[in-house]
Amino acid sequence: MASPADSTDNKNKTGRSPVLTTPNLRSVISLPPKWLARYDDFVTKNASQVAQMESALRSLTYIIPGRFRDAELATEGIHSGVQLLSLYHDLLLFRATTSSSPSPSASVTPSASSNLARSLHARYTRFWAAKSDLYRRVAIVLQVVQYTELLLEMWAKRRGQAIRWRVVVLVEAIKALCRLLLLKITRSRPLVTPALPERERAQPNGHAPPPHSVVDDARQPHNPRKEWSMPRTGLTLPSLPARGDISSYLLARVLTADDIKPATKLLHTLRGSASTAEVLYILAPLVYALALARTDPSRRRASWTPWLVGLSVQLAARQLALRARDGSPRNMPALEKEEWARRGRTMWWWLMRGAAYEHLVKGVVGGVRRRVPGFVGTILEDYEYLWENYYFSTSDL
């Protein structure tokens, strides 16, 4: 009669792996969270190096030869993956900074003086992302959709034009829904782009500078040779300006009204026609996508109708918003002026879409491509192929 030891040896000889016991199984299952925690800790402590690596990878996907023709799906997948990884890193750093601060208060206190070094956009988005879990989740969904929309269109195009335009309309509908939710969560305040706070410039050691030096470090570089450290407090007095630079030196240290406003006061609450204009602005890309999807496929590129419909909705939204502000953006808060100017600049993208590109811009791009050096011309040709064949390549919202 064979003993238990003999039976175990026979199982090992047959090549079968021994059965995992419960403690071993638990240790194996616990490995991925440990690795992820180590990775998170590495990113938090080496934020600047990680940002440089992300930038290098992102730049590489832009200049890979034949990026948009032979291996468009693979290279766009790499590009989207880098963008999603960057978003994950942003959320890690945001979580690290919010956990180190006592609360998402927007008021200026000695403990929160580091907020003065942040941009108005960062202060506003950080406030809402820290205050509202729903805002943060919706903004993350919106960002993920924006990073993968072109990849989804490339995938759908390989399965037919009908599926492609269904995917395009669905993606635009999801983005519009997310923006309408953000508008509701922020109590009808204008949307800012991006909805999540952008990554702040990290310090070499991964830690923020001390509160007493943040404002000076952000606005005026120090000269170590002329600095003087006070022996009792340890604080550092900045260097004196040059004789001809006294005015700019003093102005750089003056706090504006926006620097001390609570985050909720950085944007006005929209009412009446201003709120209607914001909703129209959000729905304009969806209207344009629906108009393109309903156009005859043989005339889709050259038809002016969908282009005029989409542009008209966006112009109507802009004109209505301007009329609600007494015909001038002068009374807008600084952050709202920045967003207003950004939206004005993105209006130029309409020249790269639909009939405007086909009838007006395409010939100009081709002429420029033939006159530039070969390597630059190759990259421009790849982008020309992208602009001609994919809807989301010129999406600005």
From TrEMBL:
- Locate the region Disordered: 1-21, 194-234
Per UniProt, the ranges with Basic and acidic residues bias are 214-229
Q: Which domain of life, per UniProt?
A: Eukaryota
Q: In the UniProt record, does the keyword Mitochondrion occur?
A: no
Q: Does the keyword Transcription regulation apply?
A: no
InterPro entries in the record: Pex16 (IPR013919)
What's in the keyword line of the UniProt record?
Peroxisome, Peroxisome biogenesis
According to its record, what are the GO cellular component terms? peroxisomal membrane
Any Gene Ontology biological process:
peroxisome organization
Q: Where in the cell is it found?
A: Peroxisome membrane
PANTHER family in alphabetical order = PEROXISOMAL MEMBRANE PROTEIN PEX16
Name the family.
Belongs to the peroxin-16 family.
Full protein name: Peroxisomal membrane protein PEX16
